[in-house]
Design goal:
alpha+beta; Jelly Rolls; Arc Repressor Mutant, subunit A; 2 domains; 7-stranded mixed β-sheet; 11 strands; 44% helix; 19% strand; globular
Length: 333
């Protein structure tokens, strides 16, 4: 069976989604979103990483983050900030929001979602949307949390600003998100759960679309999935993570010498195959520690370690904590 490493990673990093804001704007406006750490504190306490995305449901806008050229957004476009960078969405490039010292994001953390927000000449009014017919631009702003530790190769493989035009999205994405928000605004039963699942699907679809659009000369983990030999090596390591792999053995499986495999794998993925395997085993081990009551010794064997002590040392190097302590901390949250 051919293993799908992208699906493996998406399952293992515990995506948790929500749509939080339905934003209506008119005339000149600018909305700023803080970085991942602040978002986690305000919206998803305990999350390691939070990324934001914005769907243009009506009108147009500009998106910008430091060090990247601004992106012009049209109706149906989605812009995503996978690495959690602070960013600005505005009616024109170069605009910045007025300082806002209020704590409305914290205060509304547990309020029914989505929360209506209005911007007019830079003035923010939480809980007071314009009638849609009066808004020049309407945004759906969502957030997705995921784990970074022990190992998440996907986030660094995605760009800081990911702009997906309406034509480049899965045909179902924008209508489903818009419909989910509409149902949630009517406070229907189960609407919050629907919004969470749709947000996760938006992120998954974005990662898949970005992979499809990568140029031929691209590097990185996602580009490695598409390469014939490196992709085959990644599939094998994911499918048989507990096997006693060696570089020679993996090379034979993919039809490359050990030196050629090492060079090609590092060029795409950024680390040697055996280091990748060690990192992926830690991610698998973390999932087993989180999801069940198996002993550390049993988990060590399941992910390819001959002894509990060897697994515990590797896990502590990856996370800073021994496996048992890491599990206890999870249960205490």
């Amino acid at each position: 069976m051919v293993q799908d490493p992208l699906s493996d990673v998406l399952r293992s990093v515990r995506l948790r989604g929500a749509v939080y804001y339905y934003v209506s704007c008119r005339e000149q406006w600018a909305a700023e979103t803080p970085g991942s750490r602040t978002l986690a504190q305000a919206l998803m306490p305990g999350a390691e990483h939070v990324l934001a995305y914005h769907l243009i449901a009506r009108g147009e806008a500009w998106a910008a983050t430091d060090g990247q050229p601004p992106a012009r957004l049209a109706r149906g476009d989605i812009v995503m900030f996978p690495r959690g960078d602070p960013h600005v969405i505005s009616s024109a490039p170069g605009l910045r929001a007025l300082p806002d010292d209020s704590d409305w994001q914290f205060a509304t953390r547990d309020a029914p979602k989505p929360i209506a927000v209005a911007y007019h000449h830079g003035v923010l009014r939480p809980g007071e949307p314009f009638p849609v017919e009066e808004a020049s631009t309407v945004l759906v702003c969502g957030f997705v949390a995921c784990d970074l530790k022990p190992f998440n190769p996907l986030i660094e493989a995605l760009p800081r600003l990911l702009h997906l035009g309406a034509g480049g999205l899965g045909a179902w994405v924008a209508p489903m998100l818009d419909q989910a928000v509409a149902e949630s605004r009517r406070s229907g039963a189960g609407s919050a759960a629907v919004l969470e699942r749709v947000s996760e699907m938006v992120f998954v679809d974005a990662a898949r679309r970005y992979l499809d659009q990568l140029p031929e000369d691209a590097s990185g983990w996602l580009a490695g999935l598409r390469d014939r030999q490196v992709g085959r090596a990644l599939s094998l390591l994911h499918a048989r993570a507990a096997d006693p792999w060696t570089l020679d053995g993996l090379g034979r499986e993919v039809g490359l010498s050990r030196s050629a495999l090492h060079e090609r794998f590092v060029r795409f993925v950024g680390l040697p195959p055996m280091q990748y395997l060690a990192n992926w085993r830690m991610q698998l081990g973390a999932g087993l520690l989180r999801s069940g009551h198996a002993t550390v010794a049993t988990i060590a064997q399941e992910v390819g370690y001959e002894s509990e002590a060897a697994f515990a040392r590797a896990f502590k190097r990856a996370t800073g904590l021994p496996p048992a302590t890491w599990r206890r901390n999870l249960s205490a949250r």
